[in-house]
Amino acid sequence: MHEETEITSLPDRSIELPEPVAKFIEEWKDKPGNLIMVLHKVQEHYGYVPRDVAFEVAARLRVPLAKIYGVITFYHFFKLRKPGRHQIAVCMGTACYLKGGEDLIKELETILGIGLNQTTPDGEFSLEAVRCIGCCGLAPVLTVDGQVYGRLTKDQLADIVARHRGA
Amino acid sequence: MAYTQFVLVCAGTACDSCHSRAMYERLVEGVRAHGLADRVQVVRTGCFGFCAQGPVVKVLPDESFYVKVQPTDADEIVAEHLVKGRPVRRLLYSGPAPAAAVTDIPFYQKQLRIVLRNCGLIDPENVHEYIARDGYAALARVLTEMTPEDVIEELRRSGLRGRGGAGYPTWKKWSFTKAVEADTKYIICNADEGDPGAYMDRSTLEGDPHSILEAMAIAGYAVGAHQGYIYVRAEYPLAIHRLDIAIRQARELGLLGRDILGRGFDFDIEIRLGAGAFVCGEETALIASIEGKRGMPVPRPPYPAVRGLWGRPTVINNVETLANVPVIILKGGDWFASIGTETSKGTKVFALTGKVNNSGLIEVPMGITLREIIFDIGGGIKGGKRFKAVQTGGPSGGLIPEQFLDTPIDYESLAKLGSIMGSGGMIVMDEDDCIVDVNKFYLEFTVDESCGKCAPCRIGGRTMYNLLTKIAEGRGTVADIEQIQTVATAMQKASLCGLGQTAPNPVLSGLRYFGDEYRVHIKERRCPAGRCRALVTYTILPDKCIGCTLCARRCPVNCISGERRKPHIIDLTRCIKCGECFQVCKFGAVQRS
Description:
CATH class of the largest domain in chain B: Alpha Beta
Shape of chain B: globular
Distance between the termini of chain A: 47 Å
CATH architecture of the largest domain in chain B: 3-Layer(aba) Sandwich
Strand content of chain B: 15-25%
Oligomer: heterodimer
CATH architecture of the largest domain in chain A: 3-Layer(aba) Sandwich
CATH topology of the largest domain in chain B: Rossmann fold
Structural class of chain A: alpha+beta
Helix content of chain A: 40-55%
Structural class of chain B: alpha/beta
């Protein structure tokens, strides 16, 4: 384990955290095992974990930055890069896979002109494949900003994208 | 004032995504507008299970079962059914035969609901509805009439085994932890449902969150713990939201917190979020994750029952296991043990999905056959296709072919077939699914989810995946099969945790029951189901093609040419085998071979 002094002597990167995040860290600071909960809060606010915020979290929680990086990269849920304004997540659980989840991804790649885990140049959409979201009865499904679309065929995708564009 | 009619609207995730909330609001509005508000109650409930037919609405007391109800249908239900007492026929479920009431629907006839007893019946956001269904009565009985030993004895008699996969007797876990002397112990509810294609726990948490809180408090009393954690996937926002509400309500009523029911017993619960790592379903990895670390397993023993969270004795039970506990306390272990088979008692919840007509969430007594589940409850295979296999246990389980459909299912019989009970995913496959492709899908999953700590899983999984890719691309040899078997044995024996030990199961069952299909891929370089892209060629049959040009217009790489009204031709050197032409041709002129 690193000594605490090493962490507090981080370079002057200290930034102002938005109030809900700062408050949350304050509440959880002394609870054991708080790191993942704090990272969830950070991502909820920014949509990803920005580098300078990770520095700040390290300082406030007194954990090594390396540990934070280790945790972020271990879990699929945490993102290091800023996603698009609208996040499209295509389910690739088994039921969706069997019912053509892959075709949905291919079609979306064509419509958006980007590959998986990429963001459109205008920052409007990002596309990812996710594990089962538990709507297997509606397979194949995708979500846009958490809203579920089920029983899909690829003809419907252009419409769905258009509906969210600029919204 | 008493309600005489109840309209239950499913608010599970699947129905919610089909506008069930808007429909609910319209129903409430309609009930109010017609002046029925003092005799009709409209309730948002948990999952009914029949997700394929959602959004689902049930009207009590007549048990009318409406399916695929849209917001625009709400007015008609109010005006016709609630005001005039005439069910809206066009919205009633009519499967193989029209059904006026829930009890007539084959999907529900062979089910027995213990775990899902309240799902689809009560408002999960209202603790009083749970209490009205005997909620917290088990906790009250435990605290007033039973010693911790009595509680564990009741569980022993019940024969309840862990529903997370391995099937370890629950009473043993509890008694190990109870036996350890320690000032602090913990109860963890494992709600990190990671099996792709399964959502049993999600529905239980969304539909009946209090049952889990109650069970955790009972477990705390039995083993001497005062703090519980629910480790739930961050991908389940609705479940988290309802758990949060439930915990708050239980605290307000003194059912959690200090001095519960004035009996001097303290117990509280906190939610901890997972972050998308399948391996965290393994108990030591889950503990690491709650501790805020990378979710990597550690060797056992010591078992968590002795040294768990923060080094303290810890009971870890899965959601479904816990949901059984209050019922066992109230109805008795002997009652529970009267359901099921010799070695496996009670019921099991399955997420029945894939190529089956009635996909959804079902709860059946142990000992039911796969055929009854797939053909009676599930209504058979979609589109009249032929059944090929069913996979239980997700990425840790195996494929079960047609000849074993009549096996009564329990922990032992499934293991004998080379699969496992698992957490309850049940994926049905038909003749269009390729076994090599499905095996590859699951391996890709386990390779991706391997935490990388131990070599057998990290390297073995990758090696096996590469071999399968070779076979799927028509580059396989007979020697590859032998090598797969060697690697599989090494992984099973030497992997650190269940993820690596069970990862070879799908492939092994594939080789065992569908060896011929593997051999066709290797020797004839052919994929009979047409799923393995590299092995498929599309050609146009000149005598069937009428030259409508549809395929040429839809081809994404413009590799189809031909004059209007004359047979077209696919340039195979440029074809990317997307299958678009095969799908759009209305004349069966595109051949896949």
